[in-house]
Write a structure and sequence with these properties.
The complex is a heterodimer. Chain A folds into 3 domains: about 210 residues, Rossmann fold (3-Layer(aba) Sandwich), CATH 3.40.50; about 80 residues, Ubiquitin-like (UB roll) (Roll), CATH 3.10.20.600; about 90 residues, NADH-ubiquinone oxidoreductase 51kDa subunit, iron-sulphur binding domain (de novo design (two linked rop proteins)). Chain A contains 17 helices and 10 strands. In chain A, the strands form 2 sheets. A 5-stranded mixed β-sheet of chain A has the order 3-4-2-1-5. A 5-stranded mixed β-sheet of chain A has the order 7-6-10-8-9, with helices on one face. The two termini of chain B are about 25 Å apart. In chain B, β3 and β4 form a beta hairpin. Chain B is elongated, with a radius of gyration of 17 Å. The longest helix of chain B has 12 residues. Classes of the chains: A alpha/beta, B alpha+beta. Bound molecules: flavin mononucleotide (FMN), iron/sulfur cluster and FE2/S2 (inorganic) cluster (FES). The site of FE2/S2 (inorganic) cluster has 12 residues of chain B, from α5.
Chain lengths: ~425, ~150
C-alpha cells in the first residue's frame, strides 16, 4: 500500500515546514476551505473514518455533535498522550510529520467551529514536544495558524500542552480535567465532551492518527478514502509492533491486514527462531490472543469477533519462552500504578491482583490462584467508573483463559525456571 | 526564590488558556526543570501566581508521577519496565544501574550526577529495552551500552 500517514516520515528534514511544504503539506486546506464546514463534517462522516485512539468511535459523528451545539466558543483537543503500553505509533507523526497533524487540526477545527486547539502531549515525549512546538511556531509564521488563515477568514490558534506522567490522562474526560490544571480523574458522562468539555464548552477530542488522516479524506474524497482497508473500518492504520519479532517498528497498512501478514511478512517473523506463544493485538488493555488466531484480520470488527480489540493498534508479540504469569504481572503492576483512585473496584482490585501475582512470582504460588484471580476480576468487571478498570483485568482473564498451565506451574514453589524474577521486581 | 524570568515564562504560558489555572502543571514542570525538584513552597508560590487555592494545587501536583519531591541527580535516568522492555531485559538493566551507581532507585549519587528510576512505557517499545536520560532517549540497551552512554553526562 502507498504510504500516506508515514509518507514524509524518514525524508530529510520532514518536520521542518519548508521540506514538508515541498512534500505536499497543507495542500488539503484550500479544498477544505472551499467546502462549507457542515460539508466537511459530512465528508468525514461519509468516509467512515473511526477514531484511532482506541475506542473506534465514528469521527464525523462526534464532530457533528459538537458542530451542531449553538455557541462560538468550542475547543479541539488532540490526544497525544499515547500512554497505552506497547503503543508508539503517534510518535512517528509527532516526530517526523508534525505539519500533517497541524493540517488535520486546522481542517477539523474549521469543520466543528473551534477557534482554539491544544495538543496534549505526554511528558515522556520531551523531544517530540520540542519538535511540535517548533512546528507550531513555523505554521504561525507562514500564516497557517492564527487569524485569517490563507486569507479565507478562518481563525485557529493552537498551543502545545504537556502532561506530567499519568496514563489515565489519555482518557478524554481525564485529559480535559488535566488540561484545566486539576487531578486527571475522569468525569461523569453524559454530558459528553462534544456537548460540554473543556471549560464546559463543546469540545472534540481526537487522537493524533485520526487527525492526521483527515487531510486524506479531503484530498481523496470520502469515496477514495473508503476504498482503502475494510468496509467497516476504512482507511490506513498504523501498527506499532514490539516484543519477540525480528523487525519491530511502526507499519502503515490497510485495515484488515491479518496478524500473520503483519508478524511474518512485515516484521520478519519471531526472533531467535522461536515459536509464537501469545499476541496482545491492541495495547495492554486488550485481551491476548494465541497462535491459533494468526488469520484474524486486524480491524475493529474482526478483532471483537475474535474476543479481543483493535485498541490502539499496538501489537506485543511473545514467544514460547515467555511465562504468561510474569507477563500478566508486569501489566497488572502498570494498571495498579495508573489507577486514578476515584473508584474502589479499580483502585483496590488492581492492588489485590498485584499482591497475588507478587506472591506467585516469589515462589509462593498456591493451587487455586488462577481462580482467586478470576474472583477478584469478577469484583472489578462492570463495576468501574471508567474503562481503565475493565482494561486492567483483560491481561489476567485472557492469560488464564489460554495459558492456565503456566499458572498451575506456579503453584507449589514455582516452575524452577527462574524467568519470573528477572522480569518483575 | 523563583526568578523574575521564570515568573515571566509562567505568565506567558497562562495567557494561552481561557483560565489561568490551566498553566498549573506546565508551570510546575518549568520549576522542576529549573530547581531539580518541587517543594510545598514552590507549589504555594505557583498557586498564588495562578490564583489557585494552595491545597488544590498541591492535590493536583501530587497526582502526577513525574513530579519529584526530593533532590535528584543532575541527570535523571528513567528506565522503562513495562512489558516489551521487561521481555527484553529491563530488570537486568535496573540491577546493573543500582550496582554501578551504588544508590537505590530515586536517590542521587554522592556526586549529585545521577539518579535513576523506573518508568512505565515511554513509547519506544520498538527499541526495547529503552530509557530516557533527561530529554534524551536511548534504545536497544545492554549494561555495556548504558556504561558508554552515561560517560557523556557530566
Ligand atoms: C484509560 C484510557 C487511556 C486512554 N489513552 C489514550 C491515549 O493515550 N491516546 C488516545 O488517543 N486515546 C486514549 N484513550 C481514548 C480516549 O478516551 C478517546 O476515546 C480518544 O482520544 C478519542 O479520539 P479518537 O476518536 O480519535 O480515537 C484512552 C482511553 C482510556 C479509557
Ligand atoms: S476505573 Fe480506575 S482509573 Fe477509572 S475512574 Fe475508577 S479508579 Fe479511576
Ligand atoms: S514497554 Fe518500554 S518503551 Fe514501551
Amino acid at each position: 500500500m502507498e504510504q500516506m500517514l508515514l509518507n514524509r516520515v524518514g525524508k530529510a528534514k520532514s518536520a521542518e515546514i519548508d521540506a514538508a511544504l515541498k512534500l505536499g503539506a497543507y495542500a488539503a486546506l484550500e479544498p477544505a476551505f472551499r467546502m462549507r464546514p457542515a460539508d466537511v463534517v459530512h465528508e468525514v462522516k461519509q468516509s467512515g473514518l473511526r477514531g484511532r485512539g482506541g475506542a473506534g468511535f465514528p469521527t464525523g459523528l462526534k464532530w457533528e455533535f459538537c458542530a451542531t451545539v449553538p455557541g462560538s466558543e468550542k475547543y479541539l483537543l488532540c490526544n497525544a498522550d499515547e500512554g497505552e503500553p506497547g503503543t508508539f505509533k503517534d510518535r512517528f507523526i509527532l516526530e517526523h510529520d508534525p505539519h500533517l497533524l497541524i493540517e488535520g487540526m486546522i481542517i477539523s477545527a474549521y469543520a466543528i467551529g473551534a477557534t482554539q486547539g491544544y495538543i496534549y502531549i505526554r511528558a515522556e515525549y520531551p523531544a517530540q514536544r520540542d519538535i511540535l512546538e517548533k512546528a507550531v511556531a513555523q505554521a504561525y509564521m507562514r500564516g497557517y495558524l492564527g487569524s485569517n488563515i490563507l486569507g479565507k477568514g478562518v481563525n485557529f490558534d493552537l498551543a502545545v500542552h504537556t502532561g506530567a506522567g499519568a496514563y489515565i490522562c489519555g482518557e478524554e474526560t481525564a485529559l480535559i480535567e488535566s488540561l484545566e490544571g486539576k487531578r486527571g480523574q475522569p468525569r461523569m458522562r453524559p454530558p459528553f465532551p462534544a456537548i460540554e468539555g473543556a471549560w464546559r464548552k463543546p469540545t472534540v477530542v481526537n487522537n493524533v492518527e485520526t487527525l492526521a488522516a483527515v487531510p486524506f479524506v479531503i484530498t481523496l474524497t470520502a469515496e477514495g478514502f473508503q476504498k482503502i482497508g475494510e468496509e467497516s473500518s476504512p482507511g490506513p492504520k498504523l501498527f506499532a509492533v514490539s516484543g519477540a519479532v525480528n523487525k519491530p517498528g511502526g507499519y502503515e497498512l490497510p485495515m484488515g491486514t491479518t496478524l500473520r501478514e503483519l508478524i511474518f511478512d512485515h516484521c520478519g517473523g519471531i526472533s531467535g527462531g522461536r515459536r509464537l506463544k501469545a499476541v496482545i493485538p491492541g495495547g495492554a488493555s486488550t485481551p491476548m490472543l494465541t497462535a491459533d488466531h494468526l488469520d484474524v484480520k486486524l480491524d475493529f470488527k474482526s478483532l471483537v469477533a475474535a474476543g479481543s480489540m483493535l485498541g490502539s493498534g499496538a501489537v506485543i508479540v511473545m514467544d514460547d519462552s515467555t511465562c504468561m504469569v510474569s507477563a500478566a504481572a508486569v501489566l497488572i503492576r502498570f494498571f495498579k500504578h495508573e489507577s486514578c483512585g476515584k473508584c474502589t473496584p479499580c483502585r483496590e482490585g488492581t492492588g489485590w491482583l498485584y499482591q497475588v501475582y507478587r506472591r506467585m512470582l516469589n515462589g509462593q504460588g498456591r493451587d487455586g490462584d488462577a481462580d482467586l484471580l478470576l474472583r477478584i476480576c469478577d469484583s472489578i468487571q462492570g463495576k468501574c467508573f471508567c474503562p481503565l478498570g475493565e482494561g486492567a483485568i483483560q491481561p489476567v482473564l485472557s492469560s488464564i483463559r489460554y495459558f492456565r498451565a503456566d499458572y498451575e506451574k506456579c503453584a507449589g514453589g514455582g516452575c524452577g525456571e527462574k524467568v519470573c524474577r528477572p522480569m518483575v521486581h | 526564590m523563583i526568578s523574575e524570568a521564570v515568573i515571566e515564562r509562567i505568565r506567558k504560558t497562562a495567557d494561552r488558556y481561557p483560565e489561568r489555572r490551566a498553566a498549573l502543571i506546565p508551570a510546575l514542570t518549568i520549576l522542576q526543570d529549573e530547581l531539580g525538584h518541587l517543594s510545598l513552597d514552590t507549589v504555594r508560590s505557583v498557586a498564588e501566581e495562578l490564583n489557585v487555592p494552595a491545597p488544590e494545587a498541591f492535590g493536583a501536583a501530587s497526582f502526577y508521577s513525574l513530579f519529584r519531591w526530593k533532590p535528584s541527580g543532575r541527570h535523571v535516568i528513567h528506565v522503562c519496565h513495562n512489558l516489551s522492555c521487561s521481555l527484553l531485559g529491563a530488570e537486568t538493566l535496573l540491577d546493573h544501574l543500582g550496582k554501578k551507581l551504588g544508590v537505590p532507585e530515586g536517590q542521587a549519587t554522592a556526586d549529585g550526577r545521577f539518579s535513576f528510576e523506573r518508568i512505565e512505557c515511554i513509547g519506544r517499545c520498538d527499541g526495547a529495552p529503552s530509557m530516557l536520560v533527561g530529554k534524551d532517549s536511548y534504545d536497544n540497551l545492554t549494561p555495556g551500552k548504558i556504561d558508554e552512554i552515561l560517560q557523556q553526562y557530566t
